[in-house]
Design a protein that fits this description.
- The protein has 396 residues and is an alpha/beta fold.
- The protein folds into 2 domains: 4-224, Spore Coat Polysaccharide Biosynthesis Protein SpsA, Chain A; 242-392, 2-C-methyl-D-erythritol 2,4-cyclodiphosphate synthase (60s Ribosomal Protein L30, Chain: A), CATH 3.30.1330.
- Helices cover 30% and strands 28% of the residues.
- It has 12 helices and 17 strands.
- The protein has helices at residues 33-41, 57-67, 87-97, 116-127, 171-181, 191-196, 217-227, 279-292, 297-301, 313-326, 349-360, 375-378; strands spanning 4-9, 27-28, 31-32, 47-52, 79-82, 103-108, 132-138, 143-147, 150-155, 161-163, 167-170, 203-206, 242-261, 264-271, 330-339, 364-369, 382-392.
- Strands 1, 4, 5, 6, 7, 10, 11 and 12 form an 8-stranded mixed beta sheet that branches. It has a 5-stranded mixed beta sheet with strand order 14-13-17-15-16. A two-stranded antiparallel ribbon has the order 2-3.
- The longest helix has 14 residues, at 279-292.
Length: 396
């Protein structure tokens, strides 16, 4: 796409991250959050406008140069502007610096692990005629209404979506939305919301688990695990603090919902089960828990708890990771073998591995095979997953 600008908002204070510097300038795995974000955007065909806190312009310029989007007479050099008191003010400053770009994408630097494919999906929708585009993810946790300390009714999460960035717009439309919002724009944390206030439609495209927002210390730890060098020598960790575990799960076809497997939605009839029947996620949970000697998925979440009816497999994986962390354990690697006639894993292997890696916070490999027609799995009656997990715990 030509005639487009990518506004990278990096002016947040980062109070909840607790690093003592603006969030985008905090270091993770040997580089700042901003540098990680810009490295992932270096191949995007758009002029980059970088919005930073006052006084951090020189640091931002140096970071942009290291990330490959600045320095010298490079036509791709990022344009750096100072942000405002709110996120909306910072986006407005970025818009003012975007020049005559026909399309603008607005991205939060805190989503530093953003896959390039997500940017391409947003840009593709703009090319196809959309004037406002947002990447979204299904909401996987059970959500309730609340008033102060009292919990209300459970909200139907099948109709809920979590918003991500970059959000793409016809530049003139977004400018009009900001002008119409006036002073009220400061209350907005989502640019598409301002466009919708004009009565304009917003198109949704698929988001990514890797595009999570780094806000808290736990988010930062998760990002560091994903960014860490995967070549860590086994000798660097005491043998007594390394453990392996195995998890196995199988479900038959016959569920009412869509087919969920490896954290993704596939075509075809769903798997039967109290939750979404995602045998891959469930087997990962059992492998992690067994490695740490902490039981299994039944003891973690119960097999028929009403709050987990239809719950996505990610809910249980996150709970298992949290349980391991309580006991000092960290995942190092997970290997998944899927047995079944369908779905075919190969075409979406990379996508499944990326989603599961983001869930676990450590590399996850996925392979698929059949049973040559033997048994219930061979007859196409269901899907089985066998998982091995490697975890470690550093000495006290």
């Amino acid at each position: 796409m030509t005639d487009s600008a990518l506004i990278v908002v990096a002016a947040g204070s980062g109070t909840r991250l607790g690093r003592g510097v603006p969030k985008a300038f905090a270091e993770l795995a040997g580089a700042t959050i901003l540098e990680h974000a810009l490295r992932g955007l270096a191949k995007v065909d758009a002029a980059i406008v970088l919005v930073v806190p006052a006084g951090w312009e020189a640091d931002a310029a140096a970071i942009a140069a290291r990330a490959g989007v600045g320095g010298g007479a490079d036509a791709r050099a990022a344009r750096i502007v100072v942000g405002g008191a709110t996120r909306a003010d910072s986006v407005a400053a970025g818009l003012a610096a975007a020049g005559d770009a026909h399309w603008v994408l607005v991205h939060d630097a805190a989503r530093a692990l953003l896959p390039l494919a997500q940017v391409e999906r947003v840009m593709g929708a703009l090319r196809d005629g959309a004037r406002a585009v947002v990447p979204v993810l299904p909401v996987v946790d059970t959500v309730r209404e609340a008033s102060d300390a009292e919990l209300g009714a459970i909200v139907d999460r099948s109709r809920l979506r979590a918003m991500q960035t970059p959000q793409g717009f016809d530049a003139a439309l977004l400018r009009r939305a900001y002008a119409a919002a006036g002073d009220a724009r400061g209350d907005s944390t989502d640019d598409a919301q301002l466009v919708q206030a004009l009565g304009e439609p917003v198109v949704a495209v698929e988001g990514s688990e890797l595009a999570f927002k780094i806000t808290t210390r736990a988010d930062a730890h998760r990002a560091e695990l994903l960014l860490a060098d995967e070549g860590t020598s086994m000798s660097e960790l005491p043998t007594s603090e390394i453990r392996t575990g195995v998890g196995v799960d199988v479900h038959g076809f016959g569920g009412d919902g869509p087919l969920r497997l490896a954290g993704l939605e596939w075509e075809g009839q769903g798997l039967a089960g109290h939750s979404d029947g995602d045998v891959v996620c469930h087997a990962i949970v059992d492998a992690l828990l067994s490695a740490a000697g902490l039981g299994d998925i039944g003891g973690l979440a119960g097999v028929d708890d009403p709050q987990h009816a239809g719950a996505f497999g990610e809910v249980f994986v996150r709970a298992a990771i949290a349980r391991l962390a309580e006991h000092g354990w960290t995942p190092m690697n997970v290997a998944v073998q899927v047995l079944g006639n369908r779905p075919r894993i190969g075409p979406r292997r990379d996508e499944a591995q990326a989603v599961l890696t983001a869930m676990v916070g450590a590399p996850v490999s996925v392979a698929g095979t059949t049973t040559d027609g033997l048994g219930a799995i061979g007859r196409g009656e269901g899907v089985q997953a066998v998982v091995t997990a490697l975890i470690h715990r550093r000495p006290s």
